[in-house]
Specification:
The structure holds 2 protein chains of 2 kinds. Chain A contains 8 helices and no strands. Chain A is mainly alpha-helical. In chain A, helix 2 packs antiparallel against helix 3, helix 6 crosses helix 8 and helix 7 crosses helix 8. Chain B is extended, with a radius of gyration of 25 Å. Classes of the chains: A mainly alpha, B alpha+beta.
Chain lengths: 170, 240
């Protein structure tokens, strides 16, 4: 990122090559259409090029994923698919807590790890993260009590982390 | 009132980014003061990043998986390369211009001191000349560290930090440009000096703060006299 800040196009191209599959894939999953996903991918990368100082350090992959998800929900709001108030809050972009604990994260490995979660844990995580549903909406959609949904999300995330770390699952 | 256990229960949902704004704000405030919940948040965040990566598309288009069009990269890189070339051309001509702007500024200050005694004026002339020479040397030095933003650069040499900007519009009536600094280890900015562009749209200012103590510098447009907190979106923000 230092070289990108110095307006180095080659460094930016390397950054694009490294992360565009994450950005495009996430946008495609949230928006559901390739055209919209490409628009978001372009907007995210050009935003990074125009304002590299927005990234304040830490795990770049985690950061760009949050930028992408927030941007996707902006797009959905602009399409007036749902009222703005129905969407969860934007994910924080400026905290320094980092996500380096899980090494060698890649799509295939995580998909395998997610597949190991019981359906009742995976479902609320995916409805919330990709679908933009709040935990109350997930409770309504699944017909489960809110407290149960909270517990399942928490247990699912802990379990996912443990699976990816190769630890004994909870 | 929300209890600690209820907030701890909401930390996972916050980490996943699925809380409404009001509930998210409550969890954020709690995380600042509760080590147990903050540990829980740190524990869960990598799993959330992993969820994002689960949607990463395959690198192999031949597999039939969805991939972004190569034309997308071409579009983005066309714009980026054009910007980079413009930036390189600007840098090669703009730093001598910044140095000239700095020299003119100091000259204007020196010639404005008509009411002082001859000795005072000579003393001040010498001090200003030394400052001018230092500024110009810093602006042109190859070992100065430069951080580029859209209409300028932040330049650091040793403890000295300059903001040099070009093509600056005059701020609206009653407004000025104001610099902000963030000290290392802190999360909020402090007000620094205010300034106005020259008629050429160019300015060079040296901030009074020691560069090595700073983590970031920003510039925004503020009411005349400056603000204690930014009241507008920064027009420049540079992490040092």
């Amino acid at each position: 990122m230092e070289r990108v800040r110095a307006r180095d196009a080659a460094a930016f191209e390397a950054l694009y090559d490294e992360y565009h599959r994450l950005v495009y894939g996430l946008a495609l999953r949230v928006l559901g259409d390739p055209g919209g996903a490409e628009d978001v991918t372009q907007a995210v990368f050009l935003k990074i090029w125009d304002s590299p100082a927005l990234f304040r350090g830490g795990n770049f992959g985690a950061w760009i994923a949050r930028v992408t998800r927030n941007r996707c929900f902006d797009v959905l709001r602009s399409r007036a698919v749902r009222a703005e108030g129905d969407f969860p809050d934007a994910m924080p972009l400026d905290d320094s807590i980092e996500d380096q604990a899980i090494a060698n994260v890649d799509g295939a490995r995580v998909r395998d790890a997610l597949a190991q979660l019981p359906h009742e844990q995976r479902e609320p995580i995916e409805l919330g993260f990709f679908g933009g549903a709040t935990q109350s909406e997930i409770a309504r959609q699944t017909g489960m009590p809110l407290g149960t949904i909270k517990t399942r999300i928490r247990t699912g995330l802990r379990r996912l982390r443990n699976v990816l770390e190769g630890a004994v699952t909870v | 009132m929300t209890t600690h256990d209820e907030l701890l229960d909401s930390v996972a949902a916050y980490a996943l980014g699925i809380l409404p704004a009001n509930e998210a704000a409550e969890v954020v405030a709690h995380l600042r003061t509760c080590q147990q919940c903050e540990r829980e948040y740190r524990l869960l965040r990598p799993a959330v990043t992993a969820v994002a990566y689960s949607s990463e598309v395959c690198a192999d288009a031949a597999s039939g998986a969805a991939v972004a069009s190569p034309l997308l990269k071409a579009r983005i890189m066309k714009r980026v390369r054009a910007d980079a070339e413009r930036s390189a051309r600007r840098t090669s001509r703009v730093w001598p211009a910044y140095a000239f702007a700095a020299a003119c500024l100091v000259f204007a200050i020196v010639t404005g001191l008509a009411d002082l005694s001859l000795k005072d004026r000579l003393d001040r002339d010498q001090a200003r000349s030394a400052q001018q020479a230092q500024t110009i040397a810093d602006l042109m030095a190859p070992d100065s560290k430069r951080h580029t933003f859209a209409h300028g650069e932040v330049l650091v040499r040793g403890q000295r930090l300059y903001i040099a900007m070009h093509d600056m519009p005059m701020p609206p009536k009653g407004k000025v440009y104001q610099a902000w600094t963030m000290t290392k280890g802190e999360k909020t900015v402090k007000p620094s000096m205010t300034f106005m562009p020259a008629s050429t749209g160019m300015t060079v200012v040296q901030l009074p703060e020691a560069a090595t103590t700073l983590a970031a510098v920003a510039v925004s447009i503020e009411p005349d006299g400056g603000s204690l907190q930014p009241t507008s979106k920064p027009i420049a923000m540079v992490t040092l």
